[in-house]
Amino acid sequence: MNTVKFIGMDVHKKTITIAIIDEERNQRARVYGTIANEADALDKFCRKIVSTASRLHFVYEAGPCGYGIYRHLSSKGFDCMVAAPSMIPKKSGDRIKNDRRDAKMLARLHRAGELSAVYVPDCQDEAMRDLTRAREDAVIATRKAKQRLNAFLLRNGLTYTGKTKWSKIFFNWLSDIAMPHPAQQIALQEYIDAVHETGNRINRLTDQIRHLAPTWRLAPVVLAIQAARGVSLVVAVTVLAELGDLNRFNKPSQLMAYLGLVPSEHSSGDSIKRGAITKTGNSHARKVLVEAAWAYRLQARNSRLLLNRQHGLPEKVCQIAWKAQLRLCNRFRRLAAKGKPKQKIVTAIARELSAFLWAIAKQVQPGV
After folding, report:
1. Domain extents for the chain?
2. CA 363/CA 314 separation, integer angstroms
3. What angle do CA 328, 226, 207 make, to 5 degrees?
4. How far is C-alpha 298 from the chain's CA centre?
5. Which residue, among 286, 305, 306, 304, has the nearest Cα to 354 in the 3D structure?
6. pLDDT tens for each residue of 118-175
7. C-alpha distances in angstroms, 175 versus 156, 165, 168, 170?
8. What would the DSSP string read from start to end of 65-78?
9. Closest CA to 259 of 163, 129, 352, 128
10. Reduced to 3 states, what is the DSSP secondary structure of residue 339?
11. At what angle do helices 39-49 and 68-75 cross, to 10 degrees?
């Protein structure tokens, strides 16, 4: 039996709607039905359908349900793709959408080869990614807590005259404030406590990243890319947790495009128009790389902290890191002299920084 079947799955929290299409082009997709989103139900379906085909190709959209189905089917020896939702072709005039149609569309497009697969991290990489994203959420919560405290102080006419907020002196000033009404005093204290609690969350999660990173399979790469200026431990772990092993990219331009740091383009004929960066791909890694790019606004130098990070690393890695400093610091200065906006400059620097990180990652081998 040489029949090949393509199976589209529309996955939800409790159910999976399945559509099947044969390899022959004259065949139309047909809906199999809906099964429970459970491993046993999926295994039962596989046992039933595997007797009717020599090969099965599964596909479903990436979404909040994660990669459990992909890992389960792959462990059983089946081919499975997790499709990128943003890259799925859609008809502009199609106004009807439901689970059955989505499953049929996925099966049909998978047979035609029109789907783009997302990168599926292994379990350990995904665990580190969850940890770095938890820290990122804590940073966002801290910023919002500070904004709420600032708003409370502003509407009550309380102005801090010191130089720096969020210092020990600033919190001492807050503790001396006596509000005219007890309800306002309680509200002020709750806002202050929220800032402290979210800040403590960041510290706890950062300590866990520092503790777990050496046991990670990508620990050698984490140490190596920290040789680059601006790439701290948190930045290094975040980039690798989001992107995985950088060696999976054949050339730096692929990594730049994956990060969404390349310019968009709308050209036709003799007209060439390039716009803002595409912002496709992984926004978490792009964000930390843009933050790291600000370090290149100053002159090139190896600080004591940077030398400590480079201690024990291969000489080739240190040479690439120094080459990156010379080029990116000079480019930052040149673009600033031309009057380019700072945000555009750091975006351009982040794009080239990702290429240097790719080159550094080529010099070391990740663990098993």
Report:
1. 4-112, 123-214, 216-361
2. 8
3. 135
4. 27
5. 286
6. 999 999 999 999 999 999 999 999 999 999 999 999 999 999 998 889 999 999 999 9
7. 15, 14, 11, 9
8. TTTHHHHHHHHTT-
9. 352
10. coil
11. 50
Structure-token match 């890694």, residue found: 285
Predicted local confidence at residue 1, as pLDDT? 54
Q: Which residues contact 211 (CB under 8 A, 6 or more apart)?
A: none
The tokens of 244 are what?
A: 């995985």
Q: Write down the H helix ranges in the chain.
A: 39-49, 68-75, 99-112, 123-155, 168-175, 182-212, 219-225, 233-243, 252-259, 283-293, 304-310, 315-337, 342-361
User: Nearest-CA neighbor of 1 among 52, 64, 61?
Assistant: 52
User: Cα–Cα distance between 260 and 281 in angstroms, integer?
Assistant: 6
Beta-carbon contacts of residue 364 (< 8 Å; ≥ 6 apart): 220, 221, 223, 224, 314, 317
Write phi, then psi, for 144 (nearest 5 degrees): -70, -40
Q: What is the pLDDT of residue 54?
A: 85
Residue 139 and residue 106 in contact, taking contact as beta carbons nearer than 8 Å: no
The pTM of this model reads: 0.91
| 4-112: CATH architecture | 2-Layer Sandwich (3.30)
Cβ atoms < 10 Å from Cβ of 258: 20
Residues in the chain: 368
Starting at the edge strand found earlier in the chain, the sheet holding 30-36 runs 30-36, 15-22, 4-11, 55-61, 79-83
Inter-residue contact 195 to 214 (CB < 8 Å): no
**Alpha carbon 265 to chain centroid, angstroms:** 23
**Segment 192-228, tens digit of pLDDT:** 999 999 999 999 999 999 999 999 999 999 999 999 9
Tokens representing 193? Answer: 């406590």
- H or E, element range at 97: none
